[in-house]
Every structure is written in C-alpha cells, then in structure tokens.
Design goal:
Strand order of the largest sheet: 6-5-4-7-8-11-9
Oligomer: single chain
CATH architecture of the largest domain: 3-Layer(aba) Sandwich
Strand content: 5-15%
Domain Ribosomal RNA adenine methylase transferase N-terminal: 85-274
InterPro entries: KsgA/Erm, rRNA_Ade_diMease-like_C, rRNA_Ade_Mease_Trfase_CS, rRNA_Ade_methylase_Trfase_N, rRNA_adenine_dimethylase, SAM-dependent_MTases_sf
Shape: elongated
Keywords: DNA-binding, Methyltransferase, Mitochondrion, RNA-binding, rRNA processing, S-adenosyl-L-methionine, Transcription, Transcription regulation, Transferase, Transit peptide
Order of helices and strands: HEHEEHEHEHEEHEHHEEEHHHHH
Distance between the termini: 83 Å
Family: Belongs to the class I-like SAM-binding methyltransferase superfamily. rRNA adenine N(6)-methyltransferase family. KsgA subfamily.
Subcellular location: Mitochondrion
Number of strands: 11
Low-confidence stretches: 1-7, 46-84
CATH class of the largest domain: Alpha Beta
Mean pLDDT: 86
CATH superfamily of the largest domain: Vaccinia Virus protein VP39
Structural class: alpha/beta
Radius of gyration: 25 Å
Largest sheet: 7 strands, mixed
Bound molecules: S-adenosylmethionine
Length: 381
C-alpha cells in the first residue's frame, strides 16, 4: 500500500486495453444514454495489453496474464505506449492531487489520471455495467481509486475528500480537480449547477477554487469561451466568464470516440476567480442574462425590457439602461461582462425598491393576458 502511494512515480501495471475491457465486460455503448467512449490512447494515455488470444508480442506478460501492447492499444498505428496523456495533461500538474472524475465509463481517462501521480481518484459512474471494469483498475492501483456507483447530479463531493485540503477562497486553488467526459445532455445542466456552486462557494467549491476540466459538444465549448461580439456569444459565455477564468483547451474530433458522435467535442478548463466579475446573487445575474439574450438578433433593450411588467416596460427599461450606462442599440452579443455588471447592479437596486419586481415573469403575464382574452370570448358566445 505504502509503495503504491509513492507520489508522482505510480504507474499502472499492464492491463487490457479499453477496447478489450469493453469486449470483456460487454460494455456496448447505449445510444439513448449518449455513451461515446474515448479509445484513442494518444488522447487518454495509459498502458495497455493484449488478451491471450491476440498475437504474442515480445516484451512481458502483465500481472493478469495479459501481454504488453507496444502500440498503446492502437495496433499497427505506431503510437507509443503511454503516448500523450493529452487530455489529462491539460488539467495541469496532478501530482499528489485529489481528483473527482465524473462518468468514467470503461476508464480511458481514469487510467491517465491514475498514471499522473494523483494521491486519490474518486470516480462516480451511474451505469452499473462499468463497475467491474473500474474495479479491475482499482485492484491495479491499490488505495488510489475509489468507485462510487451513483449520479453526479446528486453526489455530494464536498464530503468526499479530507477537510485538510480546504483552502481560503482567495488562496491558490486547492489540490482538488474535477475531470469528466459526460454525455452532453448531462454536462450542460451540470456546469450551470456547478457555476451556481462557485458563486455560493459550496458543493465542489467548499474546498476553495476547485479547478474543473469538462468535455462539451464543441459548439457549447465555443459558447462557454466566446468573447464579446463573437457569433457564439451567449448566456453561457456570461454565466461562465463572470465567475471563472474559462479556456477552451482542446478540440477532440468525433472519430476519437466509439461510437463516433455526430459532433466534435471541446474540452474546457475552468478556474474560479478570486472575485467574481459581477457581485450579485447567481439567480439575479441569470435572470438579467437570460432576458438580455431572449432576442439575440435584436437590440439589447428588447430582451432586457422583458424584465419589467408591460405597463411600465418602456420607462423601466429606459431607466435601467441609462443608469447602467449601456447603449440600448447594442446587440446582446456585443455586451461585455462589465456591461452586465452594471445592468445587474442597477436591476438589483430596482428590485430592492420594488419587492415584486424580481418575481415578475413576462411569460406568466402573457399567459394571464391570453387567459383573460379566452374568458372574454367565451362570455360573448
Ligand atoms: N469518460 C468515459 C470516456 O471518455 O470514455 C465515458 C464517456 S461517456 C460519454 C459518459 C459516461 O458518463 C458513461 O459512462 C455514462 O454511463 C456516465 N454517466 C452519464 N450520466 C451520468 C450521471 N448522471 N452520473 C454519473 N455518470 C453518468
């Protein structure tokens, strides 16, 4: 146990390749669950071995009777063993780190994380079919890999790692990292939830400014990191960038996955900022930003106007934009985070003056209006 914990020098023993693990445990991807696995070892890194029935390769027999695969799992491709760890390397130095991997699946990224000299890796996987394969990895890395069969959307990671890892928010980030390649349908709601956790300094951010590296549909990765004025600028850009330093660090072509998804993926790295660029409650920022992008091709006053009841929409929108010093004819995509800061600060003051304002929802007003119309019609009949 002690030797396996020797930091920075740990290497997994030879193991079956991910492709072989998939075969061994019959882990066919479930299309409805958007499962696509990373098999390209140039991206994930890691040692691999052939099962017995595959051609004999000189160069050692693994501890489980598997032989080392000199091609790093890409037979005949000439790829070097352990060639890359590309994705995991992008997370920064993981030596002695505590890592939380979400959705490990058959364990491609998991292997690279283990080979990066981490102190501990906690994985949370929802699909029970992957647990035996992960258990095999855990046996190969005694004391390093903790497996939880659970759901990342409800798992309480704030209780999972030692208290001693906690850092003050203003300090350097803690040695806790989140890494994951989840289905796109999970990663987008999850990042919204985690951004709210960043703003409240709870959940994974109870340890301090925990860094995250997550995979998204490439287009979502572009939106998260889009700069002012760009085509991809959206609600997600502002929500991520007001709280974090966000970087699109890698694009992974669809063919790196099995089965090949219809779109490429983008890997995004997040480091929470010591001071958010907008110092207002998350829900308030979300409301202003959501409304601003309501009509993304129109002038920004159109969407922002929806923050206010129809009867005083014109007047209140004018006041908001004037006090925030924002040109009403800018398009939502042209608004900077600093524009949003001013808009949120002024909207907050307006909400403090009118306690009903924050609860106002223009869709609800429209619904009420059309219900009244319907009632009038039926009275006339
Ligand atoms: N990370 C692996 C890779 O890169 O090869 C697997 C990627 S696959 C796209 C997503 C994985 O996340 C699957 O193993 C799936 O079962 C798991 N998953 C999906 N939703 C999850 C959830 N809510 N909680 C935990 N795991 C989840």
């Amino acid at each position: 146990m002690a030797s396996s914990r020797t930091l920075g020098t740990f290497r997994l023993p030879p193991l079956p390749t991910i492709r072989e693990i998939i075969k061994l445990f019959r882990l066919q991807a479930v299309k409805q669950l958007s499962q696509n696995f990373l098999l390209d070892l140039r991206l994930t890194g890691g040692l691999s071995v052939f099962p017995r029935r595959l051609p004999r390769v000189p160069g050692g027999v693994g501890s489980r009777g598997f032989r080392a695969d000199p091609a790093g799992g890409r037979r005949g491709s000439g790829t070097k063993v352990c060639g890359g760890h590309k994705i995991v390397r992008k997370a920064g130095n993981l030596t002695n780190a505590y890592v939380y991997e979400v959705g490990p699946g058959p364990g491609g990224i998991t292997r690279s994380i283990l080979n990066a000299g981490v102190a501990e890796l906690l994985v949370v996987e929802k699909d029970s079919r992957f647990i035996p394969g992960l258990q095999m990895l855990s046996d190969a890395a005694p004391g390093k890999l903790r497996i939880v069969h659970g759901d990342v959307l409800t798992f309480k990671v704030e209780r999972a790692f030692p208290e001693s890892l906690k850092r003050q928010w203003e300090d350097d980030p803690p040695n806790v990292h989140i890494i994951g390649n989840l289905p796109f349908s999970v990663s987008t709601p999850l990042i919204i939830k985690w951004l709210e956790n960043v703003s409240q300094r709870n959940g994974p951010f109870a340890y301090g400014r925990t860094r995250m590296m997550l995979t998204f549909q490439k287009e979502v990765a572009e939106r998260l990191t889009a700069t002012t004025g760009s085509k991809q600028r959206s609600r997600l850009s502002i929500m991520a960038q007001y709280l974090c330093d966000v970087q699109h660090i890698l694009t992974i072509p669809g063919q790196a996955f099995v089965p090949k998804p219809e779109v490429d993926s983008g890997v995004v790295h997040f480091t929470p900022l010591t001071r958010p660029r907008i110092e207002q409650p998350f829900k308030l920022v979300e409301k202003v930003v959501q409304n601003a992008f309501q009509f993304r091709r129109k002038y920004c006053h159109r969407g922002l106007g929806m923050l206010f009841p129809e009867a005083r929409r014109l007047e209140s929108t004018g006041k908001l934009l004037e006090l925030a010093d924002v040109d009403p004819t800018l398009r939502p995509t042209q608004l900077t985070v600093s524009h949003f800061k001013s808009l949120c600060d002024v909207y907050r003051k307006m909400c403090d003056e009118d306690p009903h304002l924050f609860a106002y929802n223009f869709r609800e007003e429209l619904r009420q209006k059309s219900k009244k119309e319907d009632d009038k019609q039926s009275c006339r009949l």
